[in-house]
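My main concern about presentation is that the manuscript never shows what a single data entry looks like. Each protein is reduced to its one-letter sequence and a matching series of backbone shape codes. For the editor and my fellow referees, an illustration may be useful. For illustration, here is how one protein appears when written out as sequence plus structure tokens:
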Amino acid sequence: MTKKNLVLLLFTLGLAVVYAIWFTDWFHPVALRISHTHRDLHPHLQHGNALPSLKFGVNGEFRLTEIKVVPLAGYETNHNVLPLWHLISDSNSVPVKTFFYGEYIRGMRPNFKGAGPEALETNVTYRMFVRAGKAAGQHDFDLQE
């Protein structure tokens, strides 16, 4: 191989690497986009401290590995604030596209045995963290009266 061919080969490989890094998603982590909606599904069944009908959605079907909801004010001062709802998956959760706050998702369990979702308060901002393998996302939400 001549010197000219070697330089052309290295230049071509360099262009391929630059293209792969700048113009493809091969080296970028997948970001989960999370949305929410509040539905009053059964207003006649709501009694006192019932959980709200908050429905969350992600941008595709994912096998979730962690869901965590924390109050935003507490999280900004202390990243180790106790979550109001925390599910983890050790093995194989089912692929989901939408889920309700406090819902049992097959293949996931509470981080602490026997811990369930706590009731949310109105006019308080919360942050939800969702992880699905290497993909992760977060979403701020609140309940309006």
Q: What stands out?
A: The chain has a mean pLDDT of 85. The first strand starts at residue 34 and ends at 38. The beta strands are 34-38, 54-63, 66-71, 85-88, 95-100, 109-110, 125-132, 135-142.
